[in-house]
Amino acid sequence: MNRRDFTTLTGLAAGALWLPSFPSLAGNLVDPAQLLEPGLDVAQKKRLADVALNAAKSAGASYADVRIQRTLNQGIFTREKQVQNIASGESFGVGIRVIANGTWGFASTNNVTDAGLAKTAQQAVAIAKANSKVQKEPVKLAPQKGYGEVSWKAPIEKNAFEVPIKEKVDLLLAANGMALDNGASFVNSALFQVNEQKYFASTDGSYIDQDIHRIWPTFGVTVVDKASGKFRSRQALSVPMGMGYEYLTPKAADKMAGPTGSDVIGYKNSYDILEDAARAAKQTKLKVTAKSVTPGKYDLVLDPHHLGLTIHESVGHPLELDRVLGYEANFAGTSFATLEWRKKGVPYGSKQVNIVADKLQANSLGAVGWDDEGVKCKEWNLIEQGKLVDYQKIRDQAAIVGQMASDGCCYSQSWRDVQFQRMANISLKPSPTKMSVDELVSKVDKGIYIAGNGSFSIDQQRYNSQFGGQVFYAIEKGKITEMLEDVAYQTNTLEFWGACAGSCDASDYRFAGFFNDGKGQPSQSSAVSHGSATSRFNGVNIINTARKIG
Amino acid sequence: MAILSQTEAQDILKKVLSFSTADECEANLNGSLEGNVRSARNSISTAGAVDNVSLAVTSYFGKRSGTATCNQFDEATLRRCVQRAEEIARLAPESPEHMPLLGPQTYLSSPLSFAANTAAITPDYRARQMAASMQYCDTKKLSSAGFLNDSAGFVAKRNSKGLEAYQRVSNLDFSITVRTPDGMGSGYAATDFTDVSKFDAARLTAVAAGKASSSLGAKAIEPGKYTVILEPNALVSGSDASLLGALMRSFDARSADEGRSFLSKKGGGNRKGEKMFDERVTIYSDPTNAEVPDLTFSGDGRPQQRTTWIEKGVVKNLYTSRFWAQKSGIPDLPNPGGFIMEGGTQSTADLIKGTKKGILVTRLWYIRPVDPQTLLYTGLTRDGTFYIENGAIKFPVKNFRFNESPIIMLNNLEAIGRPVRLAGNLVPPLKIRDFTFTSLSDAV
Known about the structure:
The structure holds two protein chains of two kinds.
Chain A: H1 3-10, E1 28-29, H2 42-59, E2 63-79, E3 82-100, E4 103-109, H3 114-132, E5 148-153, H4 165-181, E6 186-202, E7 206-225, E8 230-235, E9 255-257, E10 265-267, H5 273-289, E11 291-292, E12 296-302, H6 304-316, H7 321-325, H8 339-344, E13 355-358, E14 379-384, E15 387-388, H9 395-398, E16 410-411, E17 420-421, E18 425-428, H10 437-442, E19 446-451, E20 456-458, E21 464-467, E22 471-476, E23 479-485, E24 487-492, H11 493-498, E25 500-503, E26 510-519, E27 524-532, E28 535-544
Parallel strand pairs in A: 5-7, 11-23, 12-19
Antiparallel strand pairs in A: 1-3, 2-3, 2-6, 3-4, 6-7, 7-8, 9-10, 12-28, 13-14, 13-18, 14-15, 16-17, 19-22, 20-21, 21-24, 22-23, 24-28, 25-28, 26-27
Helix pairs in contact in A: 2-3, 4-5
Chain B: H1 6-18, E1 24-40, E2 43-61, E3 64-70, H2 75-91, H3 116-119, H4 123-139, E4 143-159, E5 164-179, E6 186-193, H5 201-214, E7 225-230, H6 243-248, H7 253-257, E8 283-285, E9 307-311, E10 314-315, H8 322-328, E11 340-341, H9 348-353, E12 357-361, E13 364-371, E14 376-381, E15 385-389, E16 392-396, E17 400-404, H10 406-409, E18 413-416, E19 420-422, E20 425-427, E21 430-440
Parallel strand pairs in B: 7-12
Antiparallel strand pairs in B: 1-2, 1-4, 2-3, 4-5, 5-6, 7-21, 8-9, 8-11, 9-10, 12-15, 13-14, 14-17, 15-16, 17-21, 18-21, 19-20
Helix pairs in contact in B: 4-5
């Protein structure tokens, strides 16, 4: 279900349009109580999976996998003092992927019966055979051992679906109240919760049962100055996480102060929505009258909430092997970081830049036990001391680059959609030596501190990018001096990472995250986290984004 | 199962409503058959098919509402679905913006929104079309990546106050990116049809291939303000945000009245009635247009009719929720599906002929908002950008990043070409002066 379908079905009004990115609420709308009902038990799923695998093999498949998936979603939407919408969704069905005559075929159905699965398996094989007539490169799968019957469960403390809706609504309305009490003209807030109950089986002999949870509380505050007609907004500094409702119980140890003088608090593994809403309103009032930035070169100090988006766009995507090889050329694009480019040994960044891909990190959005083609997940290096050392790849790509194994980063957003290579959690390692945020700022002569991710755009090969933010502060002679507005930086990926002059240590390390990374045709969403500590980048080009309209 | 007739669909909906004990009840039944095939490196990469029908029931007790759905249609399941919607409604908070359901409505007829031959597409048809596209690139020694997606289905609606709606819809989208083997040239083409009989993948592939070959050897020129010719793919998109799409999605009356839109008036109110664009700009929507037929009813059951949004540069109408229309005493207009921008008779080639110095932009990409106050957007040119001198294309140029507002753009209008269908809209190529490019990109 795309966003337009969802808004049509639920009558969700334009009030939700402020959301920076709208999570995919695929599925049918249901009674929230239904979200607590157990799905099929593992024995039933195994029997159904065998029906599908056997039907695919009988129809001529040389390989088949089946995903029996139940996805639960709940979105709660409020504005000011009222609830706009509560949407609970459930989607249940089966996706069957096969190789026949050396060609992929895929079909899916919500008719989860023996007959429905057999018919869908046959349809997948028929599609593969139809396409094999015009196929030139037969699929070569990296070998994969079967794991037998195994399971993985996200280590959540409190299932968000078990929390009464009233408690969640009250929390959002309380956050709205904090924003209004502190000067907001308008405030929208929302809480998104996802639970993927995913059962994977393949002809390799794996039967994998997994239970995945994600949560994202967020809001947007707007202040309108009627006299001047000027309005400004600030989004929440919360982070979508691979956690349960425990994320919404604030812990003092998870509050991460920005540099002295900035009035910025970031959040680690728990979030104080009330405190952030109040602070957002105060900051937004200041944004209305803040000084408009003078364009030019500045040293940037970027907080992890902001830097996560830059990592995502300028490292995560260009190092996806399907993009590198041309499989995304018609939509998301290709990559400058080709196999030939890598051979030249051109540095990706400064020696300070160490970037790791990781599908195991606790509380991250990408953490699972096995990916959607039965590969056990792992951690691996992408950039070591500024040098590109590897890509992200799945089973049918490994042989193309002369490797024997997948990295375990194959994913599908639902039973309806075919799985393909998606981004792992991609993170910048913190400094191994002690470095606080104030110490990092103290060495900057003329710079800007940016907190929170905002506007973003990057070209189809991931060279030229432009990023905004939520709040901006001038740094002069090592001190935060005042708030700035109309700030965006334009840069080139290699220049930007080449300008990395260091990061804070692990005590400042935390995630940014995205519920809705879009890729593929038909487009699919995936959720991914990016860890980093506050980092410095020298001599970046700042533009002024203010314009006048008649 | 997926494409029910009007009688079949309404019979299910009537049965659903007969089970209701709520103050008001509405039921929506949607179904579609969809198929797709994707290629890359001149070879099929993935393909799939989805068949789904689903029912959504919303029950109302006073200002409380609840929704439940199902996708099985036996009597017991339907009855359970209604009961569940009622249970949720009883527990829901009251909505101060609740509006009573609409009674019977009169909808326009838009029979061209569905074509039987689009509904009859098979995996073999998709493979043949994609094969023809790939073969064209094989013979030209070019590399292609493409995507074909077709869908056919129905939308049906009924409520306890007598509202009844039904319409069938079909669509085919095809897009293709062609690149030179050295990766230094790239071209793109996209199309969409309601009736697939006019579709020819190889013909469109030739257009993209021509752009790929002619974009080889791009020169870097300084960023700055240039006269540009924006082809329709640079103005709207089925796969990305777009400058004209962003403009038309910003015509919400409530945001304007609340002071948080470019359509807000200083001191309060909105700018309806003001001339905000060049006088040659007229944009309207019409669900019965033969080239871009659309649904004749909105998600909440309001009729979609021909509506003018901008007329000769003047803001004529804003769309609104039913609640805001009633509260503000303004026309109750739903937001449209596609839109139609009036144009002239000139082709893109004609616009180039009339240009002394400028840049032809065939596509814009990764378009994202920068400042909602001025509707400033940023993004980049992609898949073929060319320098024009004395009425002819002189050479390809490297891609640019732009920072531009569609409001400023539609005030700097030099000429309008002939509209073509793209992503469910009718959009002409535009010639714009002083379009702002802010940096260069090495991307091809």
